[in-house]
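My convention is simple: the sequence line spells out the residues, with the fold written below as integer tokens. I include a record here:
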Amino acid sequence: MFRMAKKTRMSFECRDCGHQVPKMLGRCPECGAWGTMEESAPASIPSHAGTAAGRRIPTQAAQPIRKVSAAQAASVPTGIVELDRVLGGGLVPGGVVLISGEPGVGKSTLLLDCAHQFSAAGHGRSLIVTGEESASQVRRRADRTDSLHDDLYLAAETDLGSALSHVDSVGPGLLILDSVQTVLANDVDGVPGGVTQVKAVATAITAEAKSRNMTAILVGHVTKEGNIAGPRALEHLVDTVVHFEGDKHSSLRLLRGVKNRFGPADEVGCFEMREDGIVSLPDPSGLFLEDSPEEPTPGTCVTVTMEGRRAVPVEIQALVGKSVKDGAIPRHTVSGLETARLNMILAVLTRRGGTPLLDREVYATTIGGMRVREPASDLALALAVVSAEREIAVSADLVAIGEVSLTGQIRRTVNADRRLAEAARLGFTTALVPAGSVTEKPRRMDVIEVGTINDAKREAARAWARRGR
């Protein structure tokens, strides 16, 4: 009898994100890109893989976990306080970090300072392999930011083999590859930045870092949606993923942890972009609070938002304009806030709070370029809008924390104790919070629990009256 040959199943892979599907599609269901699906054959599994002939002698025998030393995985501080916060204490020997961010946000400047601090602290040589700039361009940035050191090495390469040869000759303790999408592995098909190439380059650098006990930092591009460009497998290959973000019109930069095998993955580091480089901001509150005049201005209220594990006070400002006529649609414009949240607050104030605002032009913003996304800022936004509409200022020493529901109720928020502790540290003496959300009240702070938006309006007016006396 004749046995039919087993048919090989083909799959289709997106060259932008690496998503695989069993049939051809015009649009990738993962990243939404058109015309990026390419045919690929699945990797074959050797028939002898599970047999005795296919087994190999392990490089190291398995040991009881109590006998395995954890000293090699101890973090090495970079000397950049906010970077160490996000990384969980510093750089881990043998660890691989992927940092992504918009073009021009300051990734290369931050990593140049990191390499300089690493070598200046005596941790060994650091090597920057740049595929996007020439060596002279990086040298000019180093002059401007005062990041020169004898143990800081620089090479401009776009070939993976040449980059690894530089690693052999320098023997660095820290390798920075800027960026992974610009390096080409000659023994792998595909163009630089493609799925196959990015996976091959990242795999080779990861293997080199593990074998040498060397820390490697890979710089990754982002898509127009803000996601890391390339295959999703890239994030699985590395140990830590961080995202560097910031508005080009603001000096504020935030480094957010996305994944971290060596520490918390929800930490946020704050930096300020200056002419001479990027500096850490261990206490960034001054950026998000406007200098208070002698008399508070109507239309402002302070809240405390959570950025990762960090409590950050933010001032919200609102301006209520004239009523629109003849059926025109009023403008509701925000900066640093969500338009949907503002529209919801206006509807609640109109229906539940007795303040008709849906036909008014309303503008709301945050100070310092901070982006506030969490619902805990609802109460402060509502009080700022009411304050602007009535031309009555909110007390300058008051903070408001709470989510406003569609029924006008003030709902509980997480980490209320941590928020109030930060507000008390900065000198705020009065806080409006949802009922039952606080377990430990800070000293010298009057914590007032409110159940509805009307309760909050009334207590805010009383706080202003007490301050006037």
